Amino acid sequence: MDTPALATPTPSAKAKRQEAERRVSVRHVSAQEAVSRPMDAQDTLSWGAQVRDVSLGGIALIVCYPFKPGSYLAIEIQGVPTAARPLLARVIHAEDQSDGTWAVGCEFLKQLTPSDMAVLV
């Protein structure tokens, strides 16, 4: 009689974070406020967000709405005078936080330039 195959253990949250830390661009910690809105509908709500960190290639937001991976967002950083245009990004992952918010990791559709970064950090 064959023994059933054992289930492969799923990676812990810590292991997942360590895997996610293999980034090409250096991330800069931030506490800026932002507004995010999905790009799939014109008349949609905008959601307040706090920027957790930003890099040339992406941004991490804390939001109260679980945007689905694959969603496209327009993100407007508040209080940055030269950031008049929204940053366009695709949601890579969304992780439920213990306080009921969501940590949303996004990849920019167009990588930021060093001068863009200088304005944001």
Domains counted in the coordinates: how many?
1
The N- and C-terminal alpha carbons lie at a distance of 63 Å
The topology string of helices and strands comes to: HEEEEEEEH
Task: Name the CATH class.
Answer: Mainly Beta
**Total count of helical runs of at least 4 residues:** 2
Shape: globular
- The amount of beta strand, in percent, is 35-45%
If you had to describe this structure to a student in words, what would you say it looks like?
- The termini are far apart.
- The chain has one domain (15-120): Beta Barrel (Thrombin, subunit H), CATH 2.40.10.
- It is globular and about 30 Å long.
- Mean pLDDT is 80; it is low at 1-10.
- A hairpin with a 5-residue loop joins strand 6 and strand 7 (102-108).
- It has helices spanning 13-20, 114-120; strands at 28-29, 33-38, 47-54, 58-63, 72-77, 87-96, 102-108.
- It is mostly beta strands.
Helix-strand layout with pairing:
Elements: H1 13-20, E1 28-29, E2 33-38, E3 47-54, E4 58-63, E5 72-77, E6 87-96, E7 102-108, H2 114-120
Antiparallel strand pairs: 1-3, 2-3, 2-5, 3-4, 4-7, 5-6, 6-7
